Structure formats: structure tokens, C-alpha cells
Amino acid sequence: MSQLRGNQTVSDAVIVDTGCANINSLKFAIERLGYKVAVSRDESVIRQAPRVFLPGVGSAEYAMQGINELQLKSLITSLTQPVLGICLGMQLLTRESFENGVQTDCLNLIDTEVKGIDISGASGTQPDGSGLRLPHMGWNTLSNIGDNPLFDGISEDDYFYFVHSYCAPVSIHTLAECRYGQDFSASLNQNNFYGVQFHPERSGQSGARLLRNFMELVS
Amino acid sequence: MLAKRIIPCLDVRDGLVVKGVKFRNHEIIGDIVPLAQKYAEQGADELVFYDITASADGRTLDRSWVERIAKVIDIPFCVAGGIKSEADAQKMLSMGADKISINSPALADPDLINRLNRQFGQQCVVIGIDSYFDEQTGQYQVYQYTGDETKSSKTRWQTADWVQEVQSRGAGEIVLNVMNQDGVRQGYDIEQLSMVREVANIPLIASGGAGTMEHFADVFQQADVDGALAASVFHKGIIAIEDLKAYLREQNVPMRK
Lengths: 219, 257
Description:
The complex is a heterodimer of chains A (219) and B (257). Chain A is of the alpha/beta class. Chain A has a single domain (3-215), classed as 3-Layer(aba) Sandwich (Rossmann fold). Chain A has 6 helices and 15 strands. In chain A, the strands form 4 sheets. A 7-stranded mixed sheet of chain A has the order 4-3-5-6-15-14-13. In chain A, strands 8-7-9-12 form a 4-stranded mixed sheet. The relative contact order of chain A is 0.16. Chain B has 257 residues and is α/β, with parallel strands linked by helices. Chain B is 36% helix and 28% strand. Chain B has 11 helices and 12 strands. Chain B has an 8-stranded parallel β-barrel, surrounded by 6 helices. In chain B, α1 (32-42) runs parallel beside α3 and α8 runs parallel beside α9 (213-223). At the A-B interface, α1, β10, β11 and α6 of A face α3, α4 and α6 of B.
């Protein structure tokens, strides 16, 4: 939990304040687990945090613009502690995104890319006969969950809350998959950078479990 | 597989949850936070909080309850009612709401949908539509300001046209409330919802008319909606969410465990 260093309380984690709107829901979820969390764009605060979260909503183009304007790119890419990107935050960790038909250079920390979810191959139907639409919105299960401490105690029966229309394909950096029209990366990892496409802060008990796993990762 | 969603709707007035029949005669159900927490624990997949008087009154509301909810619940929730601008939306989202739902303000200023989409992303832009089946003309008609009987009025939009309009402007989800069915617990309007399903390629949530567990099975199986919203059956304890989800699983409707 939180430690005291001098007169300053040091947080267990920092959420990078990229200016996106819904940071509080993530902050509250981490606090519910008993951790102390700060929201900051201050270099020294982010650098000394044991864990870093990169949130994100909106579009990749808009979010990368924000990161560039705030001059956060070189800071984020140089971090050595575990970093977890959530939803668009995960997508920003990749090499590039093709959201809205625009090529956007991302942080290039996980060597993959982001494209629109392809629902055409599913003939527009789910196994129960109903149609697919975008965004992929709601609770879905995972498959091919890798043997990684981030997914300790999490099985293919657990549901997570997804809201997205773009995804990273399955690659060697995939930690867990999800299927909606196509198989895609529900979670990514390369070096100390982790990402989840779903929203653990809004995924009930299973999401809380994943957040706790991340906080307890041995780096 | 993507689960279908069960969504309790909590009508909020002055920080309390209320319930009316056909938008009238509101009775107090209870405090917001404990009720929200109870539904989340019982397996609700999402919650909608609807400030029923906001749009019609045109006043600024104390919305601090949004943050109190965000602190305790760990499932997504949407705030509806009285959101008229990007600034209003920003406030709700920064207090911890996952989505904002707009209804009358979208009818007054359809470009608001485009602006909200650009600033906050499609995923949080929900459009609520109050639709009324006019037996005389045989048409589905969109209404506005339904929170206040004295201001409630028919718009120039037919339901299917408005659905397509909001979709083309970047809405992320549609909640279709069938006014004829609201609060009367006679079942969802399958015919109307199926008609809207045909034209909607974004998630569609059914609202209005749930009375029995069979009604939920019908709306998922026959109208292929993504979620079903209901209020009184949950508030009055007529249907327990755990029982409903167990029943729907037996009917092969994919449900989150």
C-alpha cells in the first residue's frame, strides 16, 4: 500500500492524465482495491510511480494529438515499471492505428497495429443466429488465455466489459483473445507494457481481479 | 460470446429514485446509491439513471450523485436527462459515468450528436428515443419532452427515420422507449423493435413494457435487441435479476454469469 517518503505520500499507481474524460471510474476502481492512486501528467510523479495506467476514450488521432501536445510521448516510452493501457490506451501502445481511415502513429511499444473489427466474415451472425453490430459493446468472454500473472485466477468463464469498434489482431504479443466477428487481442504484452481492450474498471469481480493482478505483478 | 444485457433503469428526481406509470404519478422508490449497489450485486449488466424532469424544466441540476455511484459500482452506467451540451457531457463523464444519453436536446440540435461523438467517442453517445404508435395513422412517431406532460409533444420525425439520422451522425447506441407500453408491464413492443432492428446497425436497447420473464425472452429472441431495460419489475420485486438471468440462460439467451 502507500508508503511515506519524507513528508510526501507516494502513490501505489499513477493514471496518466491525458485529458480524456472518464479517468475517475478507473481511479475509483483502483481505490476500491485499497491502493493509493494519483492522476498526473507530471514527469517526476509518473516516473516514480510503481505502476502506471494509460487510460483512453475517443479516437486514436485525437488522443495521440493530446499526448504529443502534452509532450508525454518520450516520457511514456521511456518508462520501465509495469504500464497498463486500457481500451484506447492499449491501442495507443501499438505501432499505429487506422481508426476512421486515418493512419495515426502511436507509441510503438507493442509491435502490432489497430484496425477496424471485421464482422463481415461472421456472415453477420452469432452462433445463436442473431446479428453483429458495431461498436462491440457489452460483456464478453476471453479465449486462449496465456500463462501470465496478469490473468491469474481468470478463466474462459469470466466476462469482461468491452466497448470498441477497432482492435489489434492476434499476434505473438497477444496475452488473451476475444471473439466478435473475428478473433482479436483482448490483451497485449511486450516487455513492461501491458494492454487490455476491455474495461477492467467496469468489469465487476473479474475486472477487479485483473487490476489486482496488475498491481501485484513482480516487475 | 457477447452476452445480452439486463439493464435496470432508475428514474431520479431530487436525488431519489422514483417510478411513474406512463410518465405520471411518480412514487418514491428509494435512495440512489444503495439501490444501484444492490442491482450491481444481483447481476445487472449495466444501469441507466434517468433524470426525469431535467429536460423539461431547463434548470441546472445537482448531479453529485453521479460521482457517489461511480465510487461504489463496478459495472457500466449511463446518465440520461438534461444533457444539452459538450460541457454537460464532459461533467457527467468526468464524474465517472461511462455513457451519456440524450433525447430531446438531440431533436432540438441534431449536430450535438456529431459533436459529442468527435469529442468523447462513439462508445459513450447513447440516443434515447421516445416512440409512440399512433393507431389512427398507423405510424411510429417520435415525441420530445416526455418528462413533462404539459410540454410533451410530437416531433416531425417518424421513428425509423430518426433512428437512421442519429446513426449517421455517430450515435453509439439507441434506447428505444415505446411510450404505449411504458409502465404497463404488458410486454415489449416486438413489432416496433423488430422494425427498428432492421434499420439499426448499432446496439439497440428495448425499453417499456417488461412485466414477466417471458417478455425478456421474447424481446431477445424475436426482436434481437442487445439489451433490455426495465424499471418497475425490478423496483417492485416482481422479478429478481438472478432468477431472470437463470431463466434466460435456460432459453439459450447468452447471459453473463
